[in-house]
Amino acid sequence: MITTRLSNLALQISGSRGLRMNFLEENISWDLFCETVFGEIGNCPRELEEIGKRIAKNCKGLPLSVIVIGGLLAKSEKTQLYWKHIAENLSSVVNLDDNARCLRILYLSYQELPIHLKPCFLYMGVFPEDSKTCFLRLRKLWAAEGFLKPISGKCLEEVAEEYLKDLIDRNLVIVRLLGSRGTVSLCSMHDLLRDLCLREAKNEKFLFSLELEQGTAIRRHNVVRQRSSKEEYDLTEVLHPAQLARSLSCDFQEALPLASFRLLRVLKQIYAEDLHYITTKSWYQIEDIFKLVNLRQTIDAPPEIWKMHQLRHVYIFTLRLPDPPTATGDEFALPNLLEMSIIKNFKWCEAVIKRIPNIKHLYIFYDDSSSLHYSLENLGYLHKLESLTCYFSCRVRRSYLVESLSVLHSLKKLTLWCCYLQWEDITRNIGSLPHLQVLKLNHGSTIGPTWETVDGLFCCLRFLEITYIDDMEQWTVAESCHFPRLNSLCLEELHKLKKIPSSFGDIQTLELIKLEMCSDSVVISAKEIAEQQEEFGNSDFRVEVYVEPNSEFKSLTKHNFRVFTRR
């Protein structure tokens, strides 16, 4: 299905078969307005009703205008004085055409934003039209840019969540996907709001999109360059006008002349297939965030990375990190570092642990068995670590990993690949983690045919994913209290597993079982669990099954048991 506001385009694509959507009638606009401002009940106070109806009428039946102006009023004072102020502003746009009127209404909502939210809103223009933006990535960029203002008792990540929620409540940002912990995972922006965003960002000299054929000599907050054709050009010459940029987002193949960017604070990403090494000078000047993606080679970081005291996030696929230079004091410490990914074949000696005391997110990768001991037991001293991903493609002493995992009491998310742990290790050492909410057991993470859980463990686990475990056959969960808070269970490519334990039908918090390419008996057991949950009145529960096109299970689809064709 194609939707468009351009009637000529609709005629070209569909001829007479297109469906023309009418504007909202006044009473429907009013109902939508009330629901947006006052919630589902939608009761407008009598003293505001006349002004409110005038505001809704001036939106001329445009749904986006109604919900955006409604979002503004929902977050503002509900007084006659303020509503009259908004109504007077809207009355000046009544005679404009639909698009111009809508943009003016959206602009009014932008004007009324609190000052701390304006740069966060404008920054959304960095991302391509119709793209779904990862909030974790957006949060890091907001922090690196300095948009997030400290709030007593809250870290910057929590502040970012509050800012995003405020933008969502104002209907300026759309939630596209919730993550495994119930927080926003993907978000986006309506194309008209993005047009407004880019226009205002350009007017305020906040953001500039740099194409190959043009440049600017004006100081810019950010420089963005989209992919273009493969014509010949001199990259240094093209980027010369942007040398005063504080932030650079780019997606071209060539290595950047980073030494030219004297004020650069944020390098968002580089797509470079032939990049092997970043020069010392390039590393040293980027103080807040460094992000390289889509690399085919391993990057060797220079020792000077340990001097980047303001560094918060490192995401490079993959990074060989040097040992920190021997020194006393904090000369080679990274007290602000929150994330490192993906760190290759690194030895976690005590000196390293002391220099990254506040790390929260870590992804480690090992493919070299020449040294069997990487001091993995010291990971247990990372007392603020919340998310850990471990990937092994060689034989190392995994017993040290198990030892460290059992004492990571701050851990909320754990992802394992090819660790070949015993199921008992998963139950006793990982199940005892008091704050663990997300557990992902991927290919080779465990060995053995039987997993038997016990009471009193996995107390906070909300999301469990098990994929590509070749020899898992039996799963015993005697009571629903073994996973008392589980919300989602995702199983993929478990061809030998006989069934999902029937006790999952008694878990009151369970909302989703997702199956992909599992045995028929597992699918049947999931259907039985769906029937149990329905009997208990759990209307939020559903099963999603992904099967081959010729599967017989497609005929079993019902409201809480959905079968989809696997792509």
Automatic annotation (TrEMBL):
Source species of the chain: Sesamum angustifolium
GO CC terms in record: membrane
PROSITE patterns, sorted: NEUROTR_ION_CHANNEL
Chief location bin: membrane
InterPro entries per record: Apaf_helical, LRR_dom_sf, Neurotransmitter_ion_chnl_CS, P-loop_NTPase, WH-like_DNA-bd_sf, WHD_DRP
Top-rank taxon: Eukaryota
Entry similarity comment: Belongs to the disease resistance NB-LRR family.
GO molecular function terms noted in the UniProt entry: ADP binding; ATP binding
BP GO terms, sorted: defense response
Domain Disease resistance protein winged helix: 126-197
Pfam family, one: WHD_DRP
Subcellular compartments: Membrane
Protein name (Swiss-Prot/TrEMBL): Late blight resistance proteinR1B-16
Keyword Cytoplasm in record: no
Keywords: ATP-binding, Leucine-rich repeat, Membrane, Nucleotide-binding, Plant defense, Repeat
